[in-house]
Design brief:
2 domains, globular, Rossmann fold, single chain, six-stranded parallel sheet, about 15% strand, 12 strands, alpha/beta
Length: about 350
C-alpha cells in the first residue's frame, strides 16, 4: 500500500462538492505527494470524475439502505483499493449514515466530525476532528473543509486557497452536449433553476409560475431557460405560460457537468438555494439567489459584485412572488451581455 494513498468521503449533494473543489485543489498544492481517492455520491460524482490528480469512486443509488457487507463488496468490486493510509469524512455536520460509511472504509487512520457515540471495539482507529467553536456556523464552508484537511494531513490547506477556484473541469463532450441542448443565439439568455434537492429549500412552484407569467408579458429580448432534472420536466412545463412559450425553453442536462457547460452560455442565473446556484457563483456568472433563511454567511460568504441574494421573505422564510419580481427587476437591468 502507498503510504500516501488517501480516501476523502463526499457522499452528498453537488453544491457541497462545488464548495469542496477549491479545498481539494489547495490540498494537492499543499501535499503533492498524496494519491487522492474520493468516494462520491451519484449527485456529485461527475464533478470529481474530471478533476486532475483524483480517482473517483461512486456510491450506488440509495447506498444508505444497503447492508454494510454488501456495500463494502460493491466498492471493492468497482476498483476501490483494499487499503488506505488515511480516510477523511469531509462533511462538516454529523450524519449517522456517513459515520457508518467511514467505519467500513479500510484505512489505518480515520478522521471525522461526529457527535455520535462510537463503539471503540468496532472502530478503535477513528479520530474525531473538531473545528473551532465558531464553525461551521457563520463561517465559509470551503474554509471549514480546508480546516478538516489541514487537521488530517498536518498542513495549512487554507494558505493555498487563493490559488484555486471552484469551477468544475469540463470536457469537449460536456460542451458538445450543451450545444445540442442550447444552440447558438444572439439573444441574452438567463437560466432559471426553481427546483431544490431538499424540501426545506423548495419554494412554492405557484410563485415561480406567477413569476414566469409576469416575464412573458415584458417586451424584451431575453430568452429564459428553465433547468430541471428529467424527472421534474412535467412540473417545469406546468410553470410556463400558455402564451409566449417561444421565449422559454426547458433543458434537462444529463449530468451536472453538462449543466455547467450550459451555464457557460448564460448571461446570468436565477436559482433557489441549491447546487446550480453554487455552481453559477463558482463559474463567476451573475446570480439572483432566492434563499430560504439558513446560514447565508456559511454558504455564500463571498458573493460576486453582480450577485443579489434575497435571504428570506418579509413574512416567511420564502420570498413572495412580488418580492421575487421586484428583486429580479432591479437586478437584471444593469447586467452585461456575456454570450
Amino acid at each position: 500500500m502507498s503510504e500516501a494513498r488517501i480516501l476523502l468521503l463526499r457522499p452528498d449533494k453537488a453544491g457541497d462538492a462545488i464548495k469542496t473543489l477549491p479545498a481539494l485543489r489547495a490540498l494537492r498544492l499543499a501535499r503533492p505527494d498524496l494519491e487522492i481517492h474520493i468516494l462520491s455520491s451519484e449527485h456529485n460524482s461527475s464533478l470529481f470524475e474530471t478533476e486532475p490528480g483524483v480517482t473517483n469512486h461512486e456510491l450506488p443509488h440509495h447506498w444508505q439502505q444497503w447492508r454494510p457487507a454488501r456495500l463494502r463488496g460493491y466498492l471493492l468490486a468497482g476498483g476501490m483499493p483494499t487499503s488506505f493510509s488515511v480516510a477523511v469524512n469531509l462533511l462538516c455536520d454529523s450524519f449517522s449514515e456517513v459515520d457508518q460509511l467511514i467505519s467500513l472504509v479500510p484505512a489505518l487512520r480515520k478522521f471525522s466530525i461526529t457527535k455520535t457515540d462510537w463503539d471503540c471495539q468496532t472502530s478503535p482507529e477513528l479520530k474525531v476532528v473538531q473545528l473551532p467553536a465558531s464553525a461551521p456556523a457563520g463561517r465559509d464552508e470551503t474554509r471549514n473543509i480546508s480546516d478538516i484537511l489541514s487537521s488530517a494531513f498536518e498542513c495549512d490547506v487554507a494558505a493555498f486557497l487563493e490559488q484555486t477556484n471552484g469551477a468544475p473541469v469540463l470536457t469537449a463532450e460536456d460542451r458538445a452536449e450543451a450545444k445540442k441542448l442550447l444552440p447558438v443565439t444572439d439573444q441574452r439568455r438567463i437560466g432559471i433553476c426553481p427546483f431544490a434537492g431538499t424540501t426545506q429549500r423548495s419554494h412554492s412552484l405557484k410563485r415561480w409560475s406567477k413569476l414566469l407569467h409576469k416575464l412573458s408579458t415584458k417586451a424584451d429580448s431575453i430568452e429564459w431557460v428553465v433547468f430541471c432534472p428529467e424527472q421534474q420536466r412535467e412540473a417545469a412545463i406546468a410553470l410556463l405560460p400558455e402564451r409566449s412559450n417561444a421565449r422559454f425553453h426547458i433543458v434537462s442536462p444529463p449530468r451536472f457537468r453538462v449543466l455547467a457547460a450550459c451555464f457557460e452560455k448564460m448571461d446570468a442565473v436565477v436559482a433557489v438555494d441549491s447546487g446550480p446556484l453554487h455552481l453559477a457563483q463558482a463559474m463567476q456568472i451573475p446570480v439572483l439567489g432566492f434563499l430560504s433563511g439558513g446560514d447565508a454567511a456559511r454558504w455564500f460568504a463571498k458573493p460576486n459584485p453582480q450577485d443579489r441574494l434575497l435571504r428570506r421573505g418579509l413574512l416567511s422564510r420564502f420570498p413572495s412572488y412580488l418580492e421575487m419580481w421586484w428583486a429580479l427587476k432591479r437586478w437584471v437591468s444593469p447586467l452585461p451581455h456575456r454570450s
